[in-house]
Amino acid sequence: MSSSPPSSSSPPYDLLVIGGGSGGIATARRAAQYGAKVAVVERGRMGGTCVNVGCVPKKVMWNAAACMEVLHDMKNFGFKGGAEFDWGFLKGRRDAYVKRLNGIYDTNLKNSAVVKIEGLARLREGGVTVATSTGEVEIDAKNVLLAVGGYPIFPPGDGISENAISSDGFFDLPDLPKKAVVVGAGYIAVELAGVLNTLGSDVTLVLRKDKALREFDDLIRDTLDSEMLRQGISILRNTGGVKSIAETAGSKTVTCADGSVVEGVDCVLMATGRAPLTEPLGLEEAGVSQGPRGHVIVDEYSETTKKGVYALGDVCGNVELTPMAIAAGRRLADRLFGNVKDAKVSYDLVPTVVFSHPPIGTIGLSEEQAKAKYGEDNVKVYRSKFANLWYGVFDIPFDEKPPTAMKMVTVGDNEQVVGLHVIGTAADEMMQGFGVAMKMGATKADFDSSVAIHPTASEEFVTLAPWGLGPQESGAKVSPLNGADVSPKVQSKL
């Protein structure tokens, strides 16, 4: 593997990838497996957002918070004592792990005979110009892939950029903040608010509108909302966003557009959106079109409006998930170099998880989306809500036990499953297999014919609406036992 660019007189690459994140690396390695001559241009650490300031370090922090939850619960299982949390120790271990992954990515490229070029690339006719530490060099390529990802953005407002951090900055925090304000309503906001709150911060979540995760099913949104409140997170709703952040003697004051004020804040984390990292690429001059929010426009085969230039991942804005970028990249390499003529990725029925507290798993359409797409009379919905067996021995009232809530959305006379949603303990680990089934066109009858694994929460999906209890009538409301498995582990139903 080379860390410096070849000379401009070198033969052209079959594929030059701009961006060393998960999607770009997956494409490069798959193309190299087919015998293509491949290079990756990256100006920072290998692995992109996911490895460095996203999925991986976030999951480490979520795991730490999950440990804290177990420590809180252990007295209910006969354990006595406690433990002290050391943020600095965890940060050191987490950062060392990320650094190790950076090295593994470098090694994988080397083992795949992919050339690594350190620098900042800009498109030109027939290839790219790379600004390196020793000057600019022109590199020719038959195909160029834009896999540069995105970056967090701040909204306008007095003192916001000066006195707040982004999700990237979260991983630089030297200590656990005593009092934190998290601004935003998406994945990142609810995940980091949950981590901070569980580890011991006093957290306020600031929402522009009423509830978080507005693209998710109402059952998920409502359950998460009530759980965040139960866990002690303060929520400011319908604020219109943050207007200003002022700092005096290390203490921050957050003022919202509706006049709401939070004082005495140690850390303000803005999770209000991300933008595609396109500015250095010279897209307009190269003839690559962008959408109204700056995302690169691509067709179903990941090709941009400039022939021979492709794009995938967050820079396109299509399902901004790491596995989606990896899948799109491998399909692209299959088509360009593996003679798989119609290889392309599908953006339908993509499983996703929100590492909130409790976690969320979802696949496909929400109830509202399904009714809008197929018509209310063609949609049947099954729901369930219960306390996980984990909480069975807790000596607390039932309504204080964290719920698991599930919903199945079906369409047509054969009740094909087009949406599956769950929030609760272990939701993050139960959805992958159901995603395979739904990709294969599974129906409610297919779920019913599967034998449950007991006692688990996931068994509820294959025991919804047992014989003798019919499904929800089209367009009707769900009765307390409608679509419900009345087994001993189920203590309440929607």
Describe the structure using short key phrases:
globular; five-stranded parallel β-sheet; about 500 residues; disordered C terminus; 13 helices; alpha/beta; five-stranded antiparallel β-sheet; single chain
pLDDT < 50 runs, ≥5 residues = 466-494
Beta-strand percentage range: 15-25%
- The chain-level structural class is alpha/beta
What Rg do the Cα atoms give? 25 Å
User: Counting H and I runs of at least 4 residues, what is the number of helices?
Assistant: 13
Number of strands: 22
The mean pLDDT is 93
Helix percentage: 25-40%
Shape assignment: globular
Major sheet summary line: 5 strands, parallel
C-alpha end-to-end distance = 58 Å
Strand order of the largest sheet: 3-2-1-7-17
Give a nutshell description of this structure:
This protein has 494 residues and is an alpha/beta fold. It has helices at residues 22-33, 48-53, 55-73, 87-111, 160-163, 167-170, 187-199, 218-230, 283-286, 322-337, 367-374, 432-439, 444-448, and strands at 15-18, 38-42, 115-118, 120-124, 127-132, 135-140, 144-146, 150-152, 179-183, 202-206, 234-236, 242-248, 251-256, 261-265, 267-270, 274-276, 309-311, 352-354, 360-364, 379-387, 403-411, 416-423. 28% of the residues lie in helices and 22% in strands.
